[in-house]
Amino acid sequence: MNEFSPSKILKSLPTQFFATLVSKVEKVKAEGHDVINLGQGNPDQPTPPHIVKALQEAAEKPVNHKYSPFRGFPYLKEAIADFYKREFGVSVDPNKEVAVLFGGKAGLVEIPQCILDPGDVVLVPDPGYPDYWSGIALAQANMKMMPLKEENRFLPDFNALSPDVSEKAKLMFLNYPNNPTGATANVEFFHDTVTFAKQHNICVVHDFAYGAIGFEGKKPVSFLQAEGAKDVGIEIYTLSKTYNMAGWRVAFAIGNRSIIEHINLIQDHLYVSLFGAVQEAACAALLQSQDCVDKLVSMYESRRNTFINGLQEIGWDVDAPQGSFFAWLKVPYGYTSESFADLLLTKAHVAVAPGIGFGNNGEGFVRVGLLTSEERLKEAVERISKLELFSSSHKC
To answer: What is the largest distance, in Å, between two alpha-carbon atoms of the chain?
Structure first.
């Protein structure tokens, strides 16, 4: 049988970080160990029943057995506009400022291919979601990292970028609440972002995947709440996290009309459209009672408090995240992020994601997903405590 070589573009794609992590976890599980897997970002709760029911009823309609309109049903885009007006006070034109996506990841990977030419420069958060890198590689563009430092509340410092990089940049990715750090941004930061983007003619893509998950009564801020945001960029919102619909693959981009048209155009060539029953279910999620969202956020906050308090009690000096369902934890002295993650996996059978997988500035941290029960989180803390890493001789 002939073996065909991959294209140069496929060869240029970054190593899938999470695939490597999964293989390590599976190896330890195959040895018969009970692994508490806190290393991935897969929501552990089921989709709310009223959304499932909406899908079931819509699946019986013959209209949904046909191809859906290429760019999505108008009713879904109208629901998206209503949702943003209700939740964030942001007005958008559903016909020209909304694009239906096949999951948030698809949009994030498509955008560089929509507006970049080979060699163009993209500003990328470091640490940040690794799949930003994938779309950039497919567009044959160049990444320039924006360090996210603890002393700057894990926000990029635009003034620290070299003038040459700022002038060459055509695209910028941001993500708040942040994966992996759990940091949040305020509207003042987004105002500064708009000013910077206008000055240098940069398109801003704000990944708002965790837009519902803020703690201590603080609702996450939408980039589009900043004056002039639609002039310079878009926001991507997924139903995966807010409504536990990760497997449904439904999201949307919202904002700048030219970028929305570019996304719609590339998707005209890649897909037809989402299954109509999924679009109807998405409407039910966006427009019906949001009690399920309130309960979900409360659950994550309770898990956060249980886990962070437990780690602090065993002597691990860690900070509580402000949003998302991740915690970003400093590793003990003497370890790299990867060696510490390997230690937890092999000795405590607790899986975490090493920070280096999210960029060079992720070194010195591990990411934990609060995506299991409080009982299992307590057990993870107990297992870690037995390693006696946080005695007086092992300071963070």
So the answer is: 68
Four-residue CA torsion sign, 325, 330, 334, 336: positive
d(CA 34, CA 369): 17
Q: Judge whether residue 25 has pLDDT over 60.
A: yes
CB atoms within 10 A of CB 185: 25
- Report the distance separating Cα 120 and Cα 24, nearest Å: 36
The b/e string for 196-218 (b: 16+ C-beta within 10 A; e otherwise) is: bbeebebbbbbbbbbbbbbbeee
d(CA 24, CA 38): 13
- Using the structure block, give the residue that is written with the tokens 């929509």: 114
The span from the CA of 242 to the CA of 212, in Å, is: 6
Sheet holding 326-330, edge to edge: 326-330, 365-369, 353-354
3-state SS, residue 143: strand
Write down the mean pLDDT value for the chain: 94
Distance of CA 115 to the CA centre of its chain: 21
> What's the pLDDT band for 391 if we cut at 50, 70, 90?
low
